[in-house]
C-alpha cells in the first residue's frame, strides 16, 4: 500500500516482498501540523475514556503553539467533565462539539457509537472530517445497511496500543524524540482532497513513531480479532491453562504463576521486543529446545483454526452485533472482575516479592505455546490479505510494547478487567476457548509423544515474520514504556 503527502516526507519500505509507504513521526514535525490541518480551527474529541483522554491531551500539547483548539465533547452530567476540565481542556455537550468542530474524533464506546451514529451524523458540518480510532462503526454500518454522510471526510487513525500507553510514551517522548505508539491510518471517504494530510497530522500529533496505511475495513477485523486472540483473550486463556497444568505437576502456586503468566510477561515479551521471535527459541537448547518445538508444533494448527473461527465471527458481523446487544445489558448489570481466582492471588504474591534485577523464569513449554498462538494469528491475517505492517503491529508489536508490560505490572486479569468494553467482552468469551483447546487438544498431543517434524521447526525458523519484525523494529525508538 502506498500514498503521497504534500506536507510530510513519505518513505517506501519492503516487507516480505511487498512495498508499503510510511511516515516517520517526531516532535520536529509539530510545526507542520497546522499546514496539514488547513481549514481546521477546532478538533472535537468526543469521549473521555482511556483513548479519549490520551488523544485529547496529546493533540492539545502538540498544537500548543497554534490557533487550533482541542475541545472535549461529553454527555450532560458526565462524571468525566471535572477531570477533563482539571487538565485545562474546554468541555462542551458532545453533540454541540460535533457541530462546531471541523475535525471530529469519535472515541466513545463502540455500542454507544453504533446506537447514536444517526444523531452524530446529523450534526456534522458539511466538509467536516470524521475521525475514528477503530473501524467498528464501519462494520456496524455495513451490517445494518447504513452509510456515512456523503459530504464529510471519513478517516481513521488507530494507535496500536491502549490509551494509557499512548499518553505515557508521548510524555516519554519529551526526552526521546519519536517515543510513542505506532498507528495505522486510513482514508475511508475523501470529499475535499485533504483527508490524507489530516489523518497523518492527527497521527503525528499523537506522537506515533511511524504511521502506516490500512483501510478501516481491514483495521476493525484485525483489531477485534487481535483483542480476542493474542492481544488479550489468548493470553488470558493460555496462562490460565498453563497455571493449572503446572499446579497438577506439583508446583506451588507462586512457581506455577512464574512459569505461566510471569514467563510470558517478564521473559518472553521482552525477548521478542529486543531479539524478535527467533530470540525466544534461540534461548533454549537440548531438552528445553525440544520442549519448545514440541509445544509449538502441537499448538500451531489448533490455534490457527480457532483464530480463523474468531475472524469469521467478526467478518460476518456476529461479533459486532454481540457488542451492540451487550450495551443495554451492561448499563444495568456491569461485568464482574475475573481477578478472584486462586491464580491471580498467587500473582499478587509474586509481584509483591518480585526483584526486578532477578532473571525472569522462561519456561520452554510456555514459550512454545505462546509463540504458536502468536504466529497462528500472523498467518491467518496474511491469508486474509492484511498488509504486513498491520499484521506485525496487531499481532506482535502492540502485544510486547504496550499490553504485556501492563500485564506484567498489574496482571493479566487486571488487563481483562480494564480494557474497552469490546475487548473485555471478547476476552471473556474467547479466552476460555483458548484454555479449553489447550487442555483438551494441544497438551494431550504434546504429552503423548508427538514426533516433532523437521518441517515444523523449519517453517518457524524461516517464517517471513522474522524479517518483517526486524525491519519494523528499526522504526521503533529505543525506549520501553514506563508503566509506573
TrEMBL record:
The record's listing under Pfam families reads: KARI_C (PF01450), KARI_N (PF07991)
Q: In which pathway does it act?
A: Amino-acid biosynthesis; L-isoleucine biosynthesis; L-isoleucine from 2-oxobutanoate: step 2/4; Amino-acid biosynthesis; L-valine biosynthesis; L-valine from pyruvate: step 2/4
Q: Which residue numbers delimit the KARI N-terminal Rossmann domain?
A: 23-214
- Cofactor(s) listed in the protein's UniProt record: Mg(2+)
Give the InterPro entries listed for this entry. Answer: 6-PGluconate_DH-like_C_sf, 6PGD_dom2, KARI, KARI_C, KARI_N, NAD(P)-bd_dom_sf
Q: Where does Mg(2+) 1 bind?
A: 223, 227
Binding annotation for Mg(2+) 2: 223
Q: Which domain of life is it from?
A: Bacteria
- Could you list this entry's UniProt keywords, alphabetically sorted: Amino-acid biosynthesis, Branched-chain amino acid biosynthesis, Magnesium, Metal-binding, Oxidoreductase
Which SUPFAM superfamilies does the protein's record reference? 6-phosphogluconate dehydrogenase C-terminal domain-like, NAD(P)-binding Rossmann-fold domains
Would the keyword Metal-binding be found if you checked this record's keyword annotation? yes
All copies of domain KARI C-terminal knotted, residue ranges: 215-357
| Record-stated family | Belongs to the ketol-acid reductoisomerase family.
Q: What is this protein called?
A: Acetohydroxy-acid isomeroreductase
Q: Which organism is it from?
A: Tenggerimyces flavus
Amino acid at each position: 500500500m502506498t500514498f503521497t503527502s504534500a506536507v510530510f516526507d513519505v518513505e517506501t519500505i519492503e516487507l516480505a516482498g511487498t512495498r508499503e509507504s510510511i511516515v516517520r513521526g517526531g516532535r520536529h514535525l509539530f510545526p507542520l501540523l497546522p499546514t496539514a490541518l488547513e481549514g481546521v480551527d477546532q478538533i472535537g474529541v468526543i469521549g473521555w475514556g482511556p483513548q479519549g483522554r490520551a488523544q485529547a491531551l496529546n493533540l492539545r500539547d502538540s498544537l500548543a503553539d497554534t490557533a487550533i483548539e482541542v475541545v472535549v465533547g461529553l454527555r450532560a452530567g458526565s462524571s468525566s467533565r471535572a477531570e477533563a476540565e482539571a487538565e485545562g481542556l474546554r468541555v462542551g455537550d458532545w453533540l454541540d462539539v460535533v457541530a462546531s468542530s471541523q475535525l471530529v474524533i469519535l472515541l466513545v464506546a463502540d455500542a454507544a457509537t453504533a446506537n447514536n451514529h444517526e444523531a452524530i451524523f446529523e450534526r456534522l458540518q458539511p466538509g467536516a472530517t470524521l475521525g475514528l480510532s477503530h473501524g467498528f462503526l464501519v462494520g456496524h454500518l455495513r451490517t445494518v445497511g447504513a452509510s456515512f454522510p456523503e459530504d464529510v471526510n471519513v478517516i481513521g487513525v488507530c494507535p496500536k496500543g491502549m490509551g494509557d500507553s499512548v499518553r505515557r510514551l508521548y510524555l516519554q517522548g519529551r526526552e526521546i524524540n519519536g517515543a510513542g505508539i505506532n498507528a495505522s491510518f486510513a482514508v475511508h471517504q475523501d470529499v475535499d482532497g485533504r483527508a490524507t494530510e489530516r489523518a497523518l497530522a492527527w497521527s503525528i500529533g499523537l506522537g506515533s513513531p511511524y504511521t502506516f496505511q490500512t483501510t478501516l475495513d481491514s483495521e476493525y477485523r484485525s483489531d477485534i480479532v487481535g483483542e480476542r486472540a493474542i492481544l488479550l483473550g489468548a493470553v488470558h486463556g493460555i496462562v490460565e491453562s498453563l497455571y493449572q497444568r503446572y499446579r497438577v505437576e506439583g508446583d506451588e502456586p507462586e512457581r506455577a504463576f512464574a512459569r505461566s503468566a510471569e514467563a510470558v510477561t517478564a521473559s518472553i515479551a521482552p525477548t521478542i521486543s529486543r531479539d524478535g521471535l527467533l530470540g525466544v527459541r534461540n534461548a533454549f537448547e537440548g531438552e528445553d529446545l525440544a520442549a519448545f518445538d514440541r509445544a509449538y508444533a502441537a499448538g500451531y494448527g489448533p490455534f490457527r483454526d480457532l483464530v480463523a473461527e474468531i475472524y469469521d465471527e467478526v467478518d460476518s458481523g456476529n461479533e459486532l452485533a454481540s457488542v451492540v446487544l451487550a450495551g443495554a445489558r451492561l448499563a444495568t448489570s456491569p461485568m464482574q472482575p475475573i481477578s478472584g481466582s486462586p491464580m491471580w492471588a498467587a500473582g499478587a504474591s509474586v509481584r509483591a516479592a518480585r526483584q526486578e534485577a532477578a532473571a525472569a523464569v522462561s519456561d520452554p513449554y510456555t514459550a512454545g505455546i505462546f509463540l504458536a498462538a502468536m504466529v497462528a494469528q500472523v498467518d491467518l491475517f496474511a491469508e486474509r490479505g492484511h498488509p504486513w505492517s498491520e499484521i506485525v503491529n496487531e499481532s506482535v508489536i502492540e502485544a510486547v510494547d504496550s499490553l504485556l508490560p501492563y500485564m506484567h505490572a498489574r496482571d493479566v486479569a487486571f488487563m481483562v478487567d480494564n480494557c474497552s468494553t469490546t475487548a473485555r467482552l471478547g476476552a471473556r468469551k474467547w479466552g476460555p476457548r483458548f484454555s479449553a483447546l489447550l487442555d483438551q487438544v494441544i497438551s494431550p498431543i504434546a504429552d503423548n509423544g508427538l514426533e516433532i517434524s523437521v518441517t515444523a521447526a523449519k517453517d518457524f525458523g524461516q517464517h517471513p515474520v522474522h524479517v518483517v519484525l526486524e525491519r519494523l523494529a528499526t522504526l521503533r525508538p529505543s525506549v520501553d514504556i514506563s508503566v509506573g
